[in-house]
Q: What sequence folds into this?
């Protein structure tokens, strides 16, 4: 099937996500490409949230989605979230749709950071695995004033 738009996925790493009744996300405490934390591993963060959005052309909707987060900061195991049934896109207020998308999130509460390195996120659909993003976790020693 030839489509007008390739599939893609992207990730936002943040402290919290809330959803309005209109479907809009309120994203709080967004990390850019790096998170700096202080201490000696393992370090427990109260929360880390990973929001993934996977998009496709309207004539090629995603039918199955599995999100995987892994990497040295999260320890030896990968973490997965499966969206068992992806809803078909529906027009809003009679306007034609140009893309289909689905959002999924991981909520690590608490989040134990085992080491410095990248947290990598992938989105697996019924036919491909897409790279969705990564965050570098940098661990720094506690400032001297905080150690005493």
A:
């Amino acid at each position: 099937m030839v489509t007008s738009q390739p599939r893609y996925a992207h990730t936002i790493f943040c402290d919290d996500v809330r959803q309005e009744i209109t479907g809009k996300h309120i994203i709080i405490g967004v990390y850019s490409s790096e998170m700096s934390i202080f201490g000696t591993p393992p370090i427990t963060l109260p929360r880390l949230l990973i929001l993934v959005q996977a998009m496709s052309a309207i004539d090629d909707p995603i039918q199955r989605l599995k999100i995987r987060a892994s990497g040295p900061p999260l320890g030896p195991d990968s973490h997965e979230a499966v969206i068992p049934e992806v809803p078909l896109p529906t027009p809003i207020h009679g306007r034609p749709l140009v893309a289909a998308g689905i959002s999924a999130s991981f909520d690590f509460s608490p989040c134990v950071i085992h080491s410095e390195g990248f947290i990598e996120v992938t989105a697996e659909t019924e036919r491909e695995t897409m790279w969705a993003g990564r965050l570098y976790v940098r661990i720094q020693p506690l400032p001297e004033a905080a150690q005493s």
